[in-house]
Design a protein that fits this description.
The model has no long low-confidence stretch (mean pLDDT 80). The protein has a two-stranded parallel sheet. It has helices spanning 37-62, 77-93, and strands at residues 7-8, 23-24. The protein is mainly alpha-helical and 94 residues long.
């Protein structure tokens, strides 16, 4: 049985669900209003799941391969990105 995996984005992508049905974004507080306790719990759940990925993205950016435009041959970009990710995975296992 396949489970439906939701793609998560931050609150800046509020309209993405119109284009991508499997997307999930936190609820924004309405102007002059408040979020319900259920909406706050849902936002916390989403942020707990996203923080793992955001931390890995930050580690990749330390190597500056994703931070700046890549100016070398495009064929080698994914090779170098895979090498960086391999180094990060090795550091996480240690």
């Amino acid at each position: 049985m396949l489970s439906c995996i939701k793609e998560q984005a931050d609150s800046g992508y509020q309209g993405i669900s119109e284009f991508h049905k499997n997307s999930e974004t936190p609820k924004k507080k309405p102007k002059g209003g408040k979020l319900t306790d259920e909406e706050k719990r849902e936002n916390r759940r989403i942020s707990k799941e996203r923080i793992l990925i955001e931390n890995i993205n930050a580690k990749i950016k330390v190597f500056k391969i994703m931070k700046y435009p890549y100016r070398n041959r495009r064929k080698r970009h994914f090779l170098r990105l895979n090498l960086v990710c391999g180094i990060i995975n090795y550091e996480l296992q240690s």
